[in-house]
Amino acid sequence: MSVAKIGIIIGSTRPSRIGPSIATWLKQNLQTADLNVDIIDLAKINLPLLDETHMPSDGHYELKHTKDWSNLIQGYQGFVLLFPQYNWGYPAPLKNALDYLYSEWRGKPVSMVSYGGRGGYQAALALSLVLRGLKFNRLSNNLEISLPAAELDDKGQFKDPAKSLAPYKFDVRQLSAEFTHVLG
């Protein structure tokens, strides 16, 4: 088997977000000899609100940022969507990034890693409908990471990311095995 490329898409662009530290931990624990994992930060991609004239399902992109986004995404065999729960939903930048493309997502395996005070179940539930519409291959291993206030500092960041995320290590290993199996 060749090495598969997996992209962890950080779905929040808030300046105070905890997503990058979770993404770094996920990458370290998801990557294996069979999986090469990259972090794709939507704050750095900086897509404007969907501004293409044509429907994404047509595959006719006119704007450079859309073509660049399409080319980037086409280089991956699977994805982990990492996002917080905002008012029982997922962040608008993630929805926007998904809506820019269509065929680039089709059939690719995807896992959701939500986080929040109670893990982000409602956000994952809402996003699962979008993933179905985009024809992703939704994996069975999805994580809901709870953020206990006692483990966060006064800026909302982990005091000790490795310790706080340790309870999810087995689940990430299971996800890694599922990606390897599906892409093998």
TrEMBL record:
<dbReference type="GO" id="GO:0005829">
    <property type="term" value="C:cytosol"/>
</dbReference>
<protein>
    <submittedName>
        <fullName>Flavoprotein</fullName>
    </submittedName>
</protein>
<feature type="domain" description="NADPH-dependent FMN reductase-like">
    <location>
        <begin position="5"/>
        <end position="139"/>
    </location>
</feature>
<dbReference type="InterPro" id="IPR050712">
    <property type="entry name" value="NAD(P)H-dep_reductase"/>
</dbReference>
<dbReference type="GO" id="GO:0010181">
    <property type="term" value="F:FMN binding"/>
</dbReference>
<dbReference type="GO" id="GO:0016491">
    <property type="term" value="F:oxidoreductase activity"/>
</dbReference>
<dbReference type="InterPro" id="IPR005025">
    <property type="entry name" value="FMN_Rdtase-like_dom"/>
</dbReference>
<dbReference type="Pfam" id="PF03358">
    <property type="entry name" value="FMN_red"/>
</dbReference>
<dbReference type="InterPro" id="IPR029039">
    <property type="entry name" value="Flavoprotein-like_sf"/>
</dbReference>
